[in-house]
Request: fold
Amino acid sequence: MIRKIKAIGEGICDILYPKTCPMCDVALGGYEAFLCEDCRIKLIPVGKPACLKCGKEIEDDEQGSCSDCQSIKRSYEKGFPALNYSQEMAKVLSDFKYNNMRSHGRFLADVIVRNKGKDILSVMPEVIVPVPIHKSKLRSRGYNQAQILSTELGRRFGIPVDCDLVIRDAKTMPQKELGPIEREENLKRAFISSKKIVQYKSALIVDDIYTTGATVEACTTVLHSMGIKDVYYTSVCIGKGL
Ligand SMILES: [Zn+2]
Ligand SMILES: [Zn+2]
Reply:
């Protein structure tokens, strides 16, 4: 009965506030859960062959790992990015991150589960760790998009989420303004351990987008320092890299 009332309530909400497509903003039909029909084909899952380390799509003639992973230190075990970055996804992720579209979290978690759910469950990480943001940013923005994603993923996979294992400490320069080496230096100082005693042997770092890998590398170093041996990451999108 309660479930029925809830369903009716949600139905009324949909009439009053029809859900819109996160990519093109048209109102969604009742059968369209997250995206309109036209935009569905604009999602580009990461294809094969893929880099054995970061999970990025590679050319056939590249061997095993992408050129970035061959030249840059990667301390994590393996990455599970769901989609190739695109203009359409840039809008969705920007709204999710900066325009208070927290409700996109369900859709974006769904994208990860559909594309990389099996792979993630095959390594069965013991804890999910969102990439943290600085608390002053959290105050001004009101939420951390990686945390919303993590909560959704944790619920779907049945894996606990720990938002306090890795803390964002120093205020860093915006990464966009820096080159790859500076990015890494900038980020090394940014993440610190909560000094919690942990029993976990493996962890899954969650972020909305993976670009150079510097953020994941910095978080992995912190998790290793806490004794968590196997670190993986997942992201909604992966960029072209350096
Ligand atoms: Zn659309
Ligand atoms: Zn790679």
The first helix runs from residue 2 to 16. The first strand starts at residue 78 and ends at 84. The chain has a mean pLDDT of 89. The pocket of zinc ion (ligand 1) is lined by residues 21, 23-24, 26, 35-36, 38-39 (CB under 6 Å).
